[in-house]
Amino acid sequence: MREQRRYKRIHFERQVQMDFFTEMYNECQIKNISLSGMFVVGEFPHNVDDQCYVRLTQKGRNVHLTLEALAKVVRQEDEGIALHFTAMSFESLLSLEMILLHQAREGSAENGLKLPENLPFEINEETSRFPDKYNPFLKGNE
């Protein structure tokens, strides 16, 4: 069988909420995620082409990302279901991209994604280290 996947999957063990409009599932386990969808572990009585709403929240020390999307079931297996994203807001797309970049930076072995080694800037986990007098978004810096 030929590989039809357009985007690399990233191993991603987090919880997601799924609402199939007739039944709601909280704290479902994601196995992997990509720019086009996710695989969710569990037994679900839903068929290929069934629509659902997914919500994933990723909280960190300095960040709070929320991905909310419409999705449809594209594959059903004994282990779980594969969902394909069909619609999401621009903000959710940015959150998804941030999640994927963070996982790539963590060096998830099976994802095949790596950030360039020689970035032209520093990536830093902390909030801005620049003194307030250089921050153009703070008033009184003129």
Which stretches of 5+ consecutive residues score pLDDT under 50?
108-115, 125-130
Query: What is the approximate shape?
Result: globular
> In the CATH scheme, what's the topology name of the domain at 10-105?
Thrombin, subunit H
Query: How many strands?
Result: 7
Give me the strand/helix succession. Answer: EEEEEEEH
CATH class of the domain at 10-105: Mainly Beta
DSSP helical segment count: 1
Widest beta sheet: strand line-up: 2-3-4-7-6-5
Q: At the fourth CATH level, what is the homologous superfamily of the domain at 10-105?
A: predicted glycosyltransferase like domains
Structural class: mainly beta
Give the termini distance in whole angstroms. Answer: 63 Å
Q: How much helix is in the residues?
A: 10-25%
Summary of the model, kept short:
The chain has 142 residues and is mainly beta. It has one helix at residues 90-105, and strands spanning 10-11, 15-19, 24-33, 37-41, 51-59, 64-76, 80-88.
